[in-house]
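In response to reviewer comment 3 from the previous cycle, which asked for concrete evidence that the modeling workflow produces usable outputs, we include below a single protein chain processed end to end. The sequence was submitted unchanged, and the resulting structure tokens are shown without manual editing.
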Amino acid sequence: MTDVGVVVLNYNRYDETIRCVESLLTQSDINLKIVIVENGSSNESLERLEDKFEDFSNITLLSSDENLGFAKGMNLGIDHLRSENVGFIFLANSDLIFTEQHILYDMLKMNKPGVGVICPFIQNTDGSYGVNCSFKKKLLWARICKTFIEGEFKWFKRRIIKKRYPDGKSVNLKPKPKPQAKGRENIVLTDKFVVTGSGYMYTPQFFEVYSRMYPCTFLYNEEYATCLYLQKAGLSTAWADTKPIIHKHGASTPAKSSQSKEFVKKIHKGGRRTIIRLMFMSKEEIIKRYC
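The workflow returned the following structure tokens.
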């Protein structure tokens, strides 16, 4: 059976992490290795996770003294699995629930030549599609910059509207209804990159080029960095027609009220500027500096 590693990052939400890992333990027809990274939580997460999973031989619990952010925290787990020569590594938000036992096995079927990342079928609790970034390969850097500019404009527009109409009654601020998610066909995407931010799998072909994910983001924008990594390495993404993985969107992210000024500063420091800097780096420079 093929070794498949899964890295689950925990930050103060040990209850979500436990549910995620329990659903992962149902996966079959693979040799599953799970790494839980306790990412400097301020509560009793480490003790709870140790008590829950200390008797599982295929679960490793790593602990950081500080919150390293998403990318660096995930890299701790990736480094551990790579030291054990695991070639397929799934990065999982702690608020994912695997609904069927062959999801990871079915993803392996999409390990085709030139594929660096495999994405499963992720569905939100309201039935809509899990959030992903999708870009055509041609002029990728320009398309990402356009997305950043449009995002800033939308944020600014909504802020002005809310300030002018604080009760929300004078203007329609309700978002458009999300399309209900349906299964997708197995396909290697040759003309564009698609990465589902809440959970995706690196393949051995990715690790022939890079040893870990881009470490300079803190909480957001990892999908953009992954697309740029793949483009510079000449790799593609693929969809796998799996049973749905349910994403309890936002449950693994700290509430805004609990985010300190230092925490917010780290998010901005590891934000869009780091992605723009990555655009101008060559594959060789990325490997030398970060891998």
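The radius of gyration is 19 Å. We consider this sufficient to address the reviewer's concern, and the full set will be provided in the supplementary archive.
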